[in-house]
Structures are given as structure tokens and as C-alpha cells.
Specification:
Nucleoside Triphosphate Pyrophosphohydrolase; 15 helices; Endonuclease III, domain 1; four-stranded mixed sheet; alpha+beta; disordered N terminus; three-stranded antiparallel sheet; about 375 residues; 2 domains
């Protein structure tokens, strides 16, 4: 028997069950069947999969954008308990929606979800459209979310591509170009459409996403248990660790800021509500200002209050700690200051700058949407108070 070259031996060992010679159409059908069978055996029990109702799919897909499944599950359950259908969400105040979203991050998603519910209630009788084109016309719903709702909830033959699916397809097809490039995006959507079976397309889409989340992971993919490993060109060529090709992200800038935390005699905290549309739009937080420069944090905090129409007078104010918070587009380092309010300090109704109003509030009260960053700042201030 002739000896195998090292690369031949590696390929033989990596593919103990090679696929027989198949036509492209036969290969796609066999792949879809293998993936569907695996999903039936291995799918995680997730609350939005139990009924696959259109509204539940919408909420889950919006929440899952850039957020881990284990983080989303309790938020999803609380959200549907409070807003069980589109009309209930449409009738809710945005502050109530943001309050339930507090801590989940990317708050623009919550505002867009609320806007979507209002439009569905007003224009579609409270029923999400079944067709992807109509879904894409709604606020905040792009091609991926439209494909998910249309295929999973309504059984339409609509493809979808998210980060997990892009990774799976790039490896299956051995794609060398960066997956975020326009040409790669077009190719990925074409592959997803080509592979999509006529029967149960939603389950196939779910299976692709599940495979990317649990098996075909970014690092150290579990090819030994992958149901479609024998169809994977990257696996056959030993390139599964090299793909997909992802362009390096730009360095995230560091932004320094200062926050002032004041409590009144009733234990309430002075919070300011950010204007809609910007960073943390519609959320409440201790007043913050960026660009401390050479000023001490207490002096910068006084400037922050003056900028929004609040004067601290000469009451004591001191730095009590720092908070670091990483966002997709910036890394924030917040100097936290704390003090007691002057007796004459009142929260104004209308304000300038990034805030629209201020009030003495309990951050845990219903209807008060507070970001994770604001909670970190408050926690640092209150922990110092207890010392």
C-alpha cells in the first residue's frame, strides 16, 4: 500500500465519514436533512421556541441582537408577562418599556420595538405581517429579522443570515473574502436561499443559527460532533480555524467622564432623563459630563450640574470611585462623585444639553428605565455611603 503524504493523512483523519459523490442539488438536500435531524435531537429548550408565535419571535430576535441567549431568557419572560401581545406593547408608555429593558443594553432596540408595535397595531390590526417585504417596512426590522419572523412563525421560504449563520456558511463553502464585505454578504444570502428547503424552512433557519451558536463556534469549533462536517469544505481542507475571514475592528476610543450622585432625605436619587435619539436616549441616570480635562472630578461634576440648570452651591462633593463601561463604539471611564444636596436644590422640569428633565426618583421604581452604566455608578456611590 503506498504511503500517504502528511496532508492526505490529515484529511483522511479529519473526515472519517466522507460524503459520497453527490450532485450539488443532492448535496444541499442531504445537508439540510442531516441538519434538521440533528436539530430535532439537540435543540435547546428556549421559551420563544415553544409556540413560535410571531410576536414572541419578534421580541426574541430583537433581544438576541448582540446579546447572549442566557442573558436574554429572563428578560424575554418578564417582557412577555408584562406585554403579552403587540397591542399591549403598543399601548405601553416608553418609560415602562425601557424599565423592563434596563440592563439588557442597546436601548435603541427597545424604542424601535415599541415603535414597531405601535405601527402594527395601527396599520395591521395588531397582527404582524407574514411576508418578509411587509415586515421590512416596519421600524427597526431588517432583512434578518424579517426572514426570521416570516420563516419561523409563518413557514414562509425566506432565508436569513446573522453572525452565526454567516460563520457556518463561510466554513461550509470555504469563503476566503471578509464576511462583512458587500460581495460576501450578497453571496452568503444567496447560499442561505439556495440551501433553504421547501419543507419547514423556519426549522432549517433555526437549525443553522443553533449550529453556529453551539457547535460551529468562532473559536475551536466542535467539528467532531457537527452533523454536517462531511459536507464542510473548510473542514476537509483543515481551514475551519481560519474561517470566516473577519476584518480587524478599529481600536475603541476611551472617553473620560464624571457623574454626580445626590440623595435626598427620603433616599431618592437625583436622576436626569436623556433626550430621545442619542446615546442612552430616554433613560434616567445620575447627571454625567464628558471631557473632564484638568479639572478635578468634583469641579467637573459641578460643571455638569450647571450645564443642565442645577447649581450645587457650596455643598460638599467628593470623588468616591471609578466605573469602567465598554460599549461597541467606546470605552467609558466614569469618575463617580457623591454629595448631599443643598436645601434649595430642586429638579427643573425642562433642561438643556443631553437631558430633557430631572427628578428625585427611586432607580428601582416601575417606569424608570436605568442603564447598566447608571446602575454601576449608583452602586459605587451607595457602597461608599455605607462604609
Amino acid at each position: 500500500m503506498p504511503k500517504r503524504r502528511p496532508d492526505q493523512l490529515r484529511l483522511f483523519q479529519a473526515s472519517p465519514d466522507p460524503a459520497p459523490a453527490l450532485s450539488p442539488e443532492e448535496r444541499d438536500r442531504a445537508l439540510a436533512q442531516a441538519l434538521a435531524a440533528w436539530f430535532e435531537r439537540s435543540a435547546r429548550d428556549l421559551p420563544w421556541r415553544r409556540a413560535r408565535a410571531p410576536y414572541a419571535v419578534l421580541v426574541s430576535e430583537i433581544m438576541l441582537q448582540q446579546t447572549r441567549v442566557d442573558t436574554v431568557v429572563p428578560y424575554f419572560q418578564r417582557f412577555l408577562e408584562r406585554f403579552p401581545d403587540v397591542c399591549a406593547l403598543a399601548e405601553a408608555e416608553i418609560d415602562d418599556v425601557l424599565h423592563l429593558w434596563s440592563g439588557l443594553g442597546y436601548y435603541r432596540r427597545a424604542r424601535q420595538l415599541h415603535a414597531t408595535a405601535k405601527e402594527v397595531a395601527a396599520r395591521h390590526g395588531g397582527v404582524l405581517p407574514a411576508e418578509a417585504e411587509a415586515l421590512r417596512a416596519l421600524p427597526g426590522i431588517g432583512a434578518y429579522t424579517a426572514g426570521a419572523i416570516s420563516s419561523i412563525a409563518y413557514g414562509r421560504r425566506e432565508p436569513l443570515v446573522d453572525g452565526n449563520v454567516a460563520r457556518v456558511l463561510a466554513r461550509l463553502e470555504n469563503m476566503d473574502e471578509p464576511v462583512r464585505s458587500p460581495s460576501a454578504v450578497r453571496r452568503l444570502w444567496a447560499i442561505a436561499a439556495r440551501l433553504l428547503p421547501d419543507e419547514q424552512p423556519g426549522r432549517f433557519n433555526e437549525a443553522l443559527m443553533e449550529l453556529g451558536a453551539t457547535v460551529c463556534t468562532p473559536r475551536d469549533p466542535r467539528c467532531d460532533v457537527c452533523p454536517v462536517a462531511r459536507f464542510c469544505v473548510a473542514r476537509a481542507q483543515g481551514r475551519e480555524q481560519d474561517l470566516p475571514v473577519v476584518e480587524q475592528k478599529r481600536a475603541v476610543p476611551v472617553v473620560e467622564a464624571v457623574a454626580a450622585v445626590l440623595r435626598d432625605g427620603e433616599g431618592r436619587i437625583l436622576l436626569a432623563r436623556r433626550k430621545e435619539g442619542g446615546l442612552f436616549g430616554g433613560l434616567w441616570e445620575p447627571p454625567m459630563v464628558e471631557g473632564v480635562g484638568s479639572m478635578t472630578p468634583p469641579a467637573a461634576a459641578r460643571r455638569a450640574f450647571a450645564a443642565i440648570g442645577l447649581g450645587l452651591g457650596r455643598g460638599p462633593l467628593r470623588e468616591v470611585g471609578k466605573v469602567t463601561h465598554v460599549l461597541t463604539h467606546r470605552r467609558m471611564v466614569i469618575a463617580v462623585t457623591r454629595g448631599a444636596p443643598a436645601r434649595s436644590l430642586e429638579a427643573p422640569g425642562e433642561m438643556a444639553g443631553p437631558y430633557e428633565k430631572a427628578a428625585w426618583l427611586d432607580p428601582e421604581a416601575r417606569g424608570v428605565g436605568v442603564s447598566t452604566l447608571a446602575r454601576k455608578v449608583i452602586a459605587v456611590a451607595l457602597s461608599d455611603e455605607k462604609d
